Amino acid sequence: MTEPYLLTASEAGTLMKKGDLTVENYAKSLLSRIQERDAQVKAWAYLDPPFVLEQARNLDQIPAEKRGPLHGIAIGVKDVILTKDMPTKLNSPIYSSSGPSTIDAAPIITLRAAGALILGKTTTTEFAAVTTGPSTTNPHDSTRTPGGSSSGSSAAVAGFQVPIALGTQTGGSTIRPGSFNGIFAWKPTWGAVSREGLAQYSVTCDTVGFYARTVGDLEMLGGVLRVEDDERIPERGFGMEGKRIAFCRTHVWGKAGRGTKNAWEGAKKILASRGAEVEEIELPSDFERISEWHANVLAGEGRTSFLGSMCTLLPEAVFELLTQQDYLLAKEKMHPMLHDHVNNTSKLTRKAQLEAYDGCARLRPVWDELASRYDAVLTPSVVDEAPVGTESTGDASFCSIWTILQVPCLNIPGFQGENGMPIGLTLVGPRYTDEHVLWAGKAIGDVFKEEGGWKSKVV
Amino acid sequence: MTEPYLLTASEAGTLMKKGDLTVENYAKSLLSRIQERDAQVKAWAYLDPPFVLEQARNLDQIPAEKRGPLHGIAIGVKDVILTKDMPTKLNSPIYSSSGPSTIDAAPIITLRAAGALILGKTTTTEFAAVTTGPSTTNPHDSTRTPGGSSSGSSAAVAGFQVPIALGTQTGGSTIRPGSFNGIFAWKPTWGAVSREGLAQYSVTCDTVGFYARTVGDLEMLGGVLRVEDDERIPERGFGMEGKRIAFCRTHVWGKAGRGTKNAWEGAKKILASRGAEVEEIELPSDFERISEWHANVLAGEGRTSFLGSMCTLLPEAVFELLTQQDYLLAKEKMHPMLHDHVNNTSKLTRKAQLEAYDGCARLRPVWDELASRYDAVLTPSVVDEAPVGTESTGDASFCSIWTILQVPCLNIPGFQGENGMPIGLTLVGPRYTDEHVLWAGKAIGDVFKEEGGWKSKVV
Fold first, then answer.
1. Which residues form a coiled coil (chains A, B) (predicted)?
2. N vs C: which end of chain A shows fewer Cβ within 10 Å?
3. What angle, 0 to 180 degrees and rounded to 10, lies between the N-to-C axes of helices B290-305 and B397-405?
4. pLDDT grade for B312, boundaries at 50, 70 and 90
5. Residue A270 has pLDDT above 80, yes or no
């Protein structure tokens, strides 16, 4: 039998539901994989193997007919999402001694109720808000970043340490690591999954995200979390023949490196060779302002979101002018960017913040209409393959546009860069067409794989 | 000396900062007032007097030069806002055994850091989402509702049990009780105060709200929470002479009862007599759809928000067709409306939900532009005075428009209905003009008071 840690969630779930694999043995296999690999990858912020095994044995006690749709499936959770049985520390010195919360974040409640085994908490950048990486490394090359801020979740799934993990995205924190690690990454439509219990940076942008090594596993999560389109997805697969597939470079295309450019041309060729009608499309010119608007919304909302945390650090001084010493103390304990947000160092006006809200809101239905003319729309996920070093988790420019448009995004692996590292492309759709995006993405991912795809060096 | 419980927050704060009143003695005065009144009003969901006094004594230990801007000021907190030292139960059987959270909600962190004394948790309707009231009564007439869902916070402030309290608003949950109880109620611009740690119903609408018996107390809170307009507010007061004050009936005016109609005419006459240029304005006709859009946004977002809670109730059954028995069990433990949201009983389509988002987003800047032509805009707060009975907390029609437009709202008491119960009007402004709204509202409130005003029967 295949080592259980190599299975997809759906495969493992089927075995566990039938009783051909106990949850305990499944957990043991994952834990031994983690033991073997994680000294180098460092994906976990919190992991308690005896506790995991205890939970696994409890799940094994559930009679077959009462087992949930995610029975025994192990899930890693980014350490900015609250869990009732594990601490949540947000990679921040402010919360370094925090314990478990009294209640799980809303999506965790639902996943647990469906039978999932919450395995542990995965590493993140501070508050999932900065690009200074944790020490986590890319499982395909330990000299490189796995991306961020969902660093641990992406690295753990790519490294076969867990089949599914939760991330979050405010700029490109789910999609970019998906591309850097060569796995599927899904950022649902804003609002399609509850954000209750997720650390807050930007209410307009923050979205829970999901990693898996197959789209089927993501579809299973979408079902449990009731992410439903208006239109039912056909039972049959998304065949390429005659499908209209748009390629949308966006106004940040100038940033694309050779790896992304090659993936772009490769994907067009492959899909056309399968009978799709491939077409490059341009966004209307006012979409060019979205990057600036995204930055302004984050600055405006960060101003509010991090005030509480800063107050924890400087209970008296925040209300008065900070002395130089106070300021340095706070900067040591809190990333300067967060500090700058609270103090509105960028001098962002409310007028500019509102212009950003209204500009993006105006373009959302424009995008929906444009995208709905195609069966699928592809766009770059990243600038290029994962950069060397773990200090910076990379550039979110290609992702943040779609995050603030609040549309569903799916990173599809399929290509590689000059150094043999993975590069994906992102499938985007109109808002609330998540099921469609997963349906099309599964087929497109299969085609990329059949045509060479991304060759994982792991395992 | 005046009984401390009768003081406004600003008055009590000045005395405590100077050391002329200890926080302990202030707390004792409030607790004895509560002891005297609350058997009838029933404003508190949680109150632990010995713990309050212990916190008060701790605050008294802070040396004068280190006391925060809210030193010793007592604040009641609606029981849907997380507190680290008191349970949060959301008036739901699901959370009836919940304890304190590991961390305070973000605004509570900031208020505590400024020296506030968190007094206790106040009653709410279930999840602040339904209109079935708790047993809390109106302090001016115990046969009537104080409104909701911020029932306890509004009743406690009106009844001199606490000078300041926090509510929330998704429809009219802050403003309506403000009117029913004859106090100032401020719902800030959406996003101006962090929502982290507030129970989630509708991310687009949920906003923390504040009650006080004077606008000065609300301004003090706004300062601590850094709710700042682009334009600095003049030092001088908002004189009526020559000010352009608009009266906006809205498309739900047909619901207005005699009390609100009399307040409307009275306010126009009073302000004109003081030299203001009073003008009735009409919203463009597409604003008529906002009430329907508000309902659709709540249905769409409630579908996501309450899934987790429903999973707590029905760990296995939610993922399959519910049996009749399961359904009845859940309905008993969870308000049927919440259940219907999760199950999308209204058959709301994603298309209709998106149309609601985009429609409201389109009208926000239209409103901002329209409102910015005036020095102040008044609109009804409620249908009429507080109805008899505590079963229903009343009609939110006049408030929900402004909630989903995400604009600042201030209920200004000043009138009374046929039964001598208070009726207020709401001052609304363009988004992120909260300081302006409070500045104008203070002056308009003073004028209403000088011209007769609302005569509180309490004390």
1. none
2. N
3. 70
4. confident
5. yes
Cβ distance of A98 and B102 shorter than 8 Å: yes
What top-level class would CATH report for the domain A4-224? Answer: alpha beta
Please report the ipTM that was assigned to this predicted complex.
Answer: 0.95
For A189, the token pair is 């439509």
Catalytic residue (choose from A92, A149, A150, A400):
A149
Using the predicted structure, report yes or no on whether residue B317 has a pLDDT greater than 50: no
Residues of chain B positioned with their CB less than 8 A from the CB of A103: 98, 101
Taking the C-alpha atoms of residue B348 and residue B377, their distance in angstroms, rounded to an integer, is 34
Partners of B281 in beta bridges: B248
C-alpha span between B180 and B239 (Å, rounded): 27
Q: Which amino acid is at B207?
A: T
Amino acid of residue A446: D
- Catalytic residue list contains B173: yes
| DSSP string computed for B8-59 | -HHHHHHHHHHTSS-HHHHHHHHHHHHHHHHHHH--EEE--HHHHHHHHHHH
CB contact under 8 A, A308 and B66: no
Q: What is the pLDDT of residues A138-182, one digit of tens each?
A: 999 999 999 999 999 999 999 999 999 999 999 999 999 999 999
* CA B60/CA B67 separation, integer angstroms: 9
| Cross-strand partners of A244 | A277
Return the DSSP state at B282.
-
- Name the 3-class secondary structure at A180: helix
Residues A175-221: tens digit of each pLDDT: 999 999 999 999 999 999 999 999 999 999 999 999 999 999 999 99
Please say if the pLDDT value at position A316 is more than 80. Answer: no
Q: Give the architecture-level CATH label for domain A244-286+363-450.
A: 3-Layer(aba) Sandwich (3.40)
Take residue B419 and report the two structure tokens written for it. 């039964």
Residues sharing a CB contact under 8 Å with residue A129, sequence separation 6 or more, in sequence order: A149, A170, A201, A302, A306, A335, A337, A338
- What residues of B are in contact with residue A100 (Cβ under 8 Å)? 102
Catalytic residue of the set A92, A150, A151, A173: A173
For testing contact with chain B, the best of A95, A168, A304, A305 (most B CBs within 10 A): A304
Distance CA B326, CA B255 (A): 39
Which of B262, B271, B263 is CA-nearest to residue B244? B271
- CATH top-level class for B1-282+359-459? alpha beta
CB neighbours of residue B454 within 10 Å: 25
Count other C-beta atoms under 10 Å from residue A64's C-beta: 10
Give exposure, B390-411, as e/b (b: 16+ Cβ within 10 Å): bebbbbbbbbbbbbbbbbbbbb
Distance CA B187, CA B406 (A): 9
* Phi, psi (rounded to 5 degrees) for B347: 55, 35
First to last CA, chain B: 16
Residues B116 and B73: their CA atoms lie apart, in Å, by 5
Residue A30 token pair: 């994952």
Tell me the two tokens of residue A361: 């809101």
| Rounded to 5°, angle at Cα A314 from A312 and A316 | 115
The CA-atom distances, in angstroms, between B101 and each of B81, B104, B247 are: 10, 7, 43
Distance CA A164, CA A38 (A): 16
Do A107 and B300 count as a contact with CB atoms less than 8 A apart?
Answer: no
What is the edge-to-edge ordering of all strands in the sheet holding B409-416? B44-46, B117-122, B74-78, B164-169, B207-212, B184-187, B409-416, B422-428, B376-380, B244-248, B277-281
The continuous run of DSSP H or E covering A339 comes out as helix A336-342
CA distances to A321, A346, B67, B224 from A317, in Å: 7, 21, 10, 12
Contacts of A368 in chain B (CB under 8 A): 354
* 8 A C-beta contact, residue A338 and residue A301: no
